[in-house]
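Response to reviewer comment R2.3. The reviewers asked that we include at least one raw input/output pair. We reproduce the pair for Lipoprotein here without editing.
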Amino acid sequence: MNKRLGAACVAVLSLTAACRDQPQQQSESPRRMPVATAESVPAPAEVVPAPQRTCSIENTRTANEPFGPELSVADVLQLGGRISGREAVENNHEKGQMDTLLTLTHASNRFTFYRSPDKDLMIQATITNFEAPYSRTLRTRIEAARRGSTSCDSLVIADSLQMNTVSARLVQGQLRRVSVDPYYD
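Raw output as returned:
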């Protein structure tokens, strides 16, 4: 019986080896996937942002009086603005005197005033809503100052001494945001 089992094993092994050596036939030819090469696949297009152009303009009237007559805390409050913040600060010139930084908001516009006992000084304004009378004046003055500079994305308007600045951001030629930074000491 051992001889028969040995012969059977040899027969099975030889059939297995024979099947492995013969190529199998298939009814369909295998699908070949295209191989991408550096030459056949175009490189993805780089997204290059459009260059932003900033124009600097010297216009003393717009830089010194961006809102027309000087805008005060009372003017903003009278138009419906509200005080949104107060911060006590030490006066740099009068020892022991405390002054106040007032933050006001009106129609999404924001103003910061330096309040001392004898006056209020605007030290910063950010304008994004151009419906109020003061912001319409600002827009008119900026548009007049930028004539001839129509391809700018940003404008920096300053007085002759570069002390007062008005910075404007434009989107497709339309005024979107203005920052007014008057000189103060």
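Residues 153 and 174 are 9 Å apart (CA to CA). Residues 54-181 form one domain. Further pairs are available on request from the corresponding author.
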